[in-house]
Design goal:
2 helices, Transcription Regulator spoIIAA
């Protein structure tokens, strides 16, 4: 499942709910585009909610880190711990 980004608001905070897989192939810039759209509407308090993200690879982490370059002054990430996976 590709990454989807749904935006909702709580007071002055834009909450971007992410779901699916955030990878080089599946991420397709969904995070960056959602953040850019919020910044264009002068919404600067942004929270990424990763509760529904199934998998994230290094490219996905890079996409999240790259969001800082968009000049989001107040930027946070929220996630809930997933169940542990077995080591190979």
């Amino acid at each position: 499942m590709n990454c989807t980004a749904t935006v909702r608001h709580s007071g002055a905070v834009s909450i971007i709910d992410l779901a699916g897989r955030i990878t080089h192939a599946a991420g397709s810039g969904a995070i960056r585009e959602a953040i850019k759209a919020e910044l264009q509407h002068d919404r600067e308090n942004i929270l990424l909610n990763l509760n529904a993200v199934d998998y994230i690879d290094s490219s996905g982490l890079g996409e999240m880190a790259g969001a800082f370059s968009l000049r989001a002054p107040r930027y946070a990430v929220s996630c809930s711990p997933s169940r542990p996976t077995a080591s190979p």
